[in-house]
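HUMAN: Would you supply a protein with fold tokens?

ASSISTANT:
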Amino acid sequence: MMNDSTLAKAIEKAGLAGASAMIVDKDGTRFEGAWGKANAATGAPMKLDTICQIASMTKAVVSVAAMQLVEQGKLTLDGPISDVLPELADAQVLDGFADDGTPQLRAAKRPITLRHLLTHTAGFGYHFVQIEILKYLQATGMPAPGSMGNYTLPLLFDPGERWEYGVGTDWVGFAVAAASGMTLGDYLQHHIFAPLGMTDSAFRQTLPADAAAVHIRGQDGALDVLPVNLGAGEVQSGGGGLSSTAPDYARFLRMILREGELDGQRIVSAETIAEMSRNQIGDIRAGYMGTSMPELAQPFDTFPDQHTGWGLGFLINPDAIEGRRSANSLAWAGIFNSYYWIDPSEGVAGVFVSQLSPFGDPGALDCFETLERMAYA
């Protein structure tokens, strides 16, 4: 077992309340640990199996669910997604604002597909990432997506023409529910969580009393608890609503490493995993997130020196990183500073879970890099 003192020191230096982390390979766990507090106010310790909000790490799970339904012929990657989600039949593109602030809309040039949604090329944004979406919500009085179950935003561009991070995977979740005839939570429980032994993963309207709190730094640098639960909305958010644990998510990562199978349970075919792991967006660059609300998320770009791509649910780095992941590894993150990577070439993956806002915290990113370097030392 690896020595955790280096990571423990990094977590302390970063000023995180607490964190849990694991490194796994195809056969099991190489490293695991938990440090600090799950709740800075109560002093409750962070444990390996402490339930945390994994936010946008939900996206990879829901992407796999969609691909199960593609395998069954219940969804198609390139047919109009309006066949199952008629709300998206007449998508509108935001073409700027009039002098009085009125949004200017036009019809999209082509239909939105599941492939567009899975690759963040459908045109959808997030109100906390793109200022145009925030201006649109302010101009129309429309609530932010998720707060009232509304996700019908205009597109920022025509489908397939750019990469922008947004609510596309929430629409993937709606498509999974529509095509399966189940709620998204029930579908994930029956077809992913139960087969994989992910016993602590769910959409939770109420978090358990011993779940980790989300923290924010006060002006004096002390950690305050932020009362937030992304799973408490009216909609089960395929883009960010799950709570889970490091061991549960590590089982999901091992399934990806094992090309769709874990402990005799086949979740998707090896061919599907290969397709999900392949860059799907050609010459478009993926991965850069700006910010319109830095109190929620800092600007983020995992590898600014690489022309990063996107698969069916994952960021892909085309070049190897010295001392870290191989070329064509898969990765993404959650808004409360949780991160994962999957390296199919080396057969290793890791997950780092903390609960701190805003996203992109430099200390948390240093901790994640420390964990990753431990895997390759």
Notes: The first helix runs from residue 5 to 14. The chain has a mean pLDDT of 96. The two ends are 13 Å apart (CA to CA). Residues 139 and 296 are 21 Å apart (CA to CA).
